[in-house]
Each structure stands twice: as structure tokens, then as C-alpha cells.
Amino acid sequence: MKRLLLAGLALLLSCLMATAQDAPIQPLLQEHQAVIAKSSRKTIGPAIDAIATSGLPQAQVVLETWGAKSMWMRKSDGLFFIGKKADGKSYQLTDFDSGEVVGEFPKKELKQLKPNSGIRALIATALVQFQLNDPDRAKRQDALTSIQRDPEAAHLGPLRASIDNEPDSEFKAQKKRLERLLTISFDNDIQTRINAINEMSGDVGVDLRATLNPLVATTREVAVGQIPEDRNVAARLTPGTAALPRDEAYGLLVAKGFAPTQVTPDDIRTALATNITGGLVAGVPVAQLDTDAARARAYAALAKGGTVPPILSDAEIDAALAAHVFYDSYAEPSNHVTDAANDVLKSIELKVGANQALDLTLDALSLASIYFLAAIGLAITFGVMGVINMAHGEFIMMGAYTGYVVQQIIPDHTVSILVAIPLAFAVTFAAGVAMERLVIRWLYARPLETLLATFGISIALQQLAKNIFGTQARPLTSPEWLDGALVLNDVVSISYIRIAIFFLALIFLGVFLFIMKRTRLGLETRAVTQNPRMAASMGINPGRVNMLTFGLGSGIAGVAGVAIGLFAKVTSELGSDYIVQSFMTVVVGGVGNIWGTLAGATMIGFLQKGIEWLNPSNTLAAQTYMIVFIIIFIQFRPRGIIAIKGRAAGD
Question: 588 and 634 in contact (C-beta within 8 Å)?
């Protein structure tokens, strides 16, 4: 008997559940038919709430259709349907409950429901509870995005209810974080809000600061006699102090309607001009109103007759100020919440400052690696050989264009970059050797003529690039794995391209040191640098060494051009943007010393970023200050940070 009873209850329960699932939504729509058809923002709320809380599976479809302005009412019976335009001026109607097409009807027999922006906002809020649990991942993401963009107290309940059943771990973490933020703003329990604030005290996210800042925002208020008890006071203010100047305090009284407006000299002139009668103002000829005192007497006469408001004396203004109390009031009514928010914001401010310092350091290191990569070739040609090569920037430009040409042939960006780097080295190495053989070798020990010759070559190379590639910037696209940035938090991030350039600079530092310390070319280069005559007497060919050394520096500049082209615009002027910084890097670091070049690039990178941080609105001024600082620095250390002896140092 007991088993029979349990079986009967189970059968009844399943029947009731099936009935709930199969229940139509049209009767509910008809219950609120007049309100829905009227579509008034003031009265539509109960109808939307009834649909959203009905528990019917059709509720989501109804709300989405309504919000999309695709819900139509048939005038003959007041029933609601999904409407879709058919041929001509007729519309195809689909039943919400059965999902079947009920026929096509002319537009004159139908009424389209067109909710305004206010009603659509209410519908969107009601839809959140469905979308947060929707099987479609995109809809759940849209719901979270919608809440983040325009959070409301009504979102808190559905968001909390959706967390436990969220199958996606990433979404679950997003929901938990968003729930904490909404709790801080909208929860009814003060202690729950305080706990949520303290729980997120170590976070530096922008969304947390955007949530806490409105809690501690203040408005300046004034009251008669004493501050109302229901106010959460941030600070009490005294008129005439730096926090509240006297004129500002009286202006607040005027704005709140607690005191009459002060009469200004302009007000006096306007009032006198308005009350001129027969060439007189209050019996005073207009010609006599040429001084402030005369105008004040005429105005006082008008005020005595009640024509204009009287001029307030300082004593009257002081009395009005003394009769009122001024204070800054928090918008948040709970002082416990504002105290917790202020404490957390102070701790966040310290962490944000530390993270900003880290972010600035990463930016400076990134810029230093770019300058070092651009200058390492010049450190060879100018630092080691003593050749002032004004065409060094054009070798960087040639390397960038080589990368662009390779990408036109090889569409795979990863493969194209791997091919472009050695090819750019080969192209610019050959160009450097050709320039050294044809021009530079005839001008050694004649720096001024070398400068003029290489400057002319740089102009010729720029014009050649314009003739071949045009003046429009060409794209040098990075591989997909270099897209985006390494984001540590909302404050600290650095792009993957800059990280790659940083490691590329370290690689070339190692290559340079290996060549100079472990190869025959390096040994011969150092010998020629220190004493070319002695090197020649030992069987070393200085001309061959100079040619290969110049080619090596030019080749490294070409590789730098490929790297720089990944984030800069590839144009014929690309090299000119880096030639000045390259020379400064070599000179400041110490001519002829690779470690000096590294130190110079680091100093210039940190200096430029530091100046830009102090003056972020004017990068041109930052570069000017940097050049001035470097000029002063060279006055005290003319041989740079790390000096070297030999030909490069002028010995």
C-alpha cells in the first residue's frame, strides 16, 4: 500500500510538472493585454515582471521578440504573435506557444509593438535571468557584458543564482567577480557590502575602482543652523578658508536659495542703462555716471525706490554665512561603507602606484631595447671604425622594406619573418660593403667629408625607396603569436612584439660579443681599432677588416629594421626617425664600447619615458628636454658612460 501511494504521488508530481512545462503563455499576455498594447514606461513594469517570473519556457522568447520590436497584436482578438514580413503588405504570424504559423494577415489588421528605449531597458533587465543560464555561450557573455556596462540592483539576484550552475570555469570566475562588485553597490545588508569591499582590497582592477569611487564621491551642501542627522558627512567646511573661499560659500547660499544674489559692477551698469529716463538715472544725469562711486550712488537711489535689489554690505554677507553650515556629504548614506571604501582605495592607490612604476619600467626597457637594436650597428661603424654614417637610418629602412617584400611572396607571417631576418642582413650587408668600397674607404680620417657624403647617400636612398614603394606606408605584419600583449593586471601590460624585440636585442648583444671576442674578424677588428699600423705590420689587411666590419654593422641595422617595422610604419622616412637616437645612444654610452651602447640605450630609454610621464601631453617637449639633458651630460662626460681607448676615442 505504501509503495502504491508513493507511485501515485510521483505520477501526480510528474503530471503537474508536465502541465507547468506545457502551460501556454498567451493567457498571461492577455491578462496584461491593455498595458502591453499601450506600452507606457510608467505602467509596463508589472507586465514585464509577470512574464519574467512566470516560469514558463516561452517567457524568454516573448521578451526577446518584444524587445526586438517583432511582437504583433492581432486587432480582431487582441492575441500576440511573432511577426515576420511576408509578401506585399502582409505579415506572417507565429504562435508563441505552439511555434506554428497561424497565417498571413494584412498590416491594417495588426498592431506592431514598438517599445521605447525605457521599456527595452526594462525588458533587457528581465532577460538577464534567462541569458545568464542560457546554453549558448555567446548569450551568457552578452548578458555579462550588458550587466558590466549598465549594472542595476535588479541584476544581483539572477547573477547570484546563476553562479553555481555555470559550467564554464572562466565564466564562473567572471560571474563571481561581477557579483562582488554588484554586492558592493546594491546589496541591502551593510555588513555584506563591507565584507565584499574588504574581500577585494588587494585588487587593482579598473572595475573595482569604478565601483568604489561613487561610494566616496561627495557633494558640497549647505544647511541652516546644523547639519541634518541623516547626512553622511565627509568634512565640515569653514567659509573663507582654502577649502571653501568666501565668494564660493556665498555663491552656494545663492544657488540653494538661502541668500539674495550679490550685485556685481556689471549688474550695476546693466541696471543703470535699463533705467535711463530722459537722460537721467534716479535724477542723476547720465554724463555724470563716469565713476564707480557715482554709479553706486545712482544704483543705491534705484534700490531705495525698490526698482533694483540692494547692494549687500560685507556685514550682511558675513551674517548670512554665519547663519549656515557648510559641509561635503557622501552620496552613500552609510558611513561604515564609506570608511571601508576609503581604506581600500588608499591601499589600492599604493598598489596602483607600484604597478605604474613597474609598467613605466617595462616601457622604458622596451624603448631602450629598440634604441639599442637600432644603434648596435652604428656602434660598429661609428664606435669602432669612427665613420660618421648618416645613412645608417636608411639601412634600417632597407631592412624593413626587405621584410615587406618577403611578406608579399610568403603569406605565412611566421615563415616570412624567419626568412626576412637573414635576408635583410644579407641585403644591407651587401649595401654596406658596396658603400664602404665605393665611398667610405676614400674618406677615412676625413670625418666632415664622410658626414656630407653619407648624408647625400641617405637622401638618395630615401628617394629611391619612394620611387620603388611610393610614399604610402607599407604594412609589415607580425605573426599571430605576437599579437596582443602580456597583461599582468589592469595597470601593467606590454605587447608581445616589444618583448620579442627585447630578446632580439639580447641575442644580437650576444652575437656581437661572440664575434668581437671569439672570432678572427673580431680579433682583427680590435687590432685595427687600437693600432692600424701595427695591425698591418702583423699581416692584417686593414682595408678588408674595415669592409667586413662596416658590412656587419650595416647588416645588423637591416635586422633592426625588420624588428622596428613590426610596430612602426614602414616608409622611406623610417630610418630618419631613429638616426638621431642611435647617435645619441652611441655617444652617451661611450664610443667604441658595446656595453656603453647598452648603457646609453638604457639611460635614454628611461630618461625619455620618465620625462613623458612627467609631461604626458607633450611628447615633443619630452624629446627636447631629453636632448638638453644629454648635451649637459656630455659636457661633464665627453667620452660617455664607458670610455674606451684607441682610434675610436681619438687617441
Answer: yes
Q: What is the DSSP letter of 146?
A: H
Angle, in degrees to the nearest 10, between helices 594-614 and 496-518: 160
Nearest-angstrom CA–CA distance, 357 and 337: 30
3-state secondary structure of 573: coil
The domain defined by 355-649 carries CATH number 3.30.1360: no
Residue 72 phi, psi (nearest 5): -125, 150
Q: pLDDT tens across 336-367, in order? A: 999 999 999 998 888 888 888 888 899 889 88
> Cα–Cα distance between 595 and 296 in angstroms, integer?
77
Q: Is 489 helix (H, G, I), strand (E, B) or coil?
A: coil
Residues 311/263, Cβ–Cβ less than 8 Å:
yes
- Residue 30 CA, distance from chain mean position: 49
d(CA 219, CA 375) in angstroms, rounded, equals 55
Residue type, 297: R
- Judge contact between 74 and 86, C-beta under 8 A: no
Diameter of the chain by CA atoms? 119
Q: Is the pTM of this model over 0.85?
A: no
| Alpha-carbon span 55 to 131, nearest angstrom | 14
Residue located via cell numbers 547626512: 231
Query: Residue 92 pairs with which residues in a beta bridge?
Result: 84, 104
Q: Shortest CA distance to 634 belongs to which of 588, 583, 586?
A: 588
Nearest to 399 by CA among 380, 373, 368, 436: 373
d(CA 213, CA 623): 35
Distance CA 191, CA 210 (A): 20
Query: What integer best gives the mean pLDDT of the chain?
Result: 84
Asked if 513 and 594 count as a contact pair (C-beta separation under 8 A), the reply is yes
The whole-angstrom separation of Cα 252 and Cα 237 is: 12
pLDDT of res. 643:
64
| Distance of alpha carbon 262 from the chain centroid | 44
pLDDT tens digits, one per residue of 258-310: 888 888 788 888 888 888 887 777 777 877 777 878 887 887 888 787 788 88
- For 390, 412, 530, 607, the CA distances from 638, given in Å and listed in that order, are 21, 48, 20, 18
Domain segments of the chain: what residues?
2-120, 218-335, 355-649
Amino acid of residue 598: L
Quote the cell numbers at residue 139: 548569450
CA distance 560 to 601: 14
Query: Does residue 493 sit in helix, strand or coil?
Result: strand
CA–CA dist 575, 374 (Å, integer): 9
| Comparison of pLDDT for 462 and 15, the residue scoring more | 462
**Cβ–Cβ < 8 Å for 85, 63:** no
The sign of the dihedral angle between the CA atoms of 405, 406, 412, 415 is: negative
Residue count of the chain = 651
Q: Do residues 513 and 376 lie in contact, with contact meaning Cβ atoms separated by under 8 Å?
A: no
Give the contacts of 641 (CB within 8 A, at least 6 positions apart).
Answer: 588, 589, 590, 596, 599, 600, 603
Confidence of residue 195 (pLDDT cuts 50, 70, 90): very high
Residue 185 CA to residue 210 CA, distance in Å, equals 11
Which among 638, 197, 549, 611 has a CA at the least distance from the CA of 367? 611
Position with higher pLDDT, 445 vs 493:
493
What's the CA gap between 252 and 268, in Å, rounded? 22
- Residue 232: exposure state from Cβ atoms within 10 A (0-12, 13-18, ≥19): middle
Beta strand extents in 153-196 (DSSP E only): none
Burial (CB count <10 Å: 0-12, 13-18, 19+), residue 338? buried
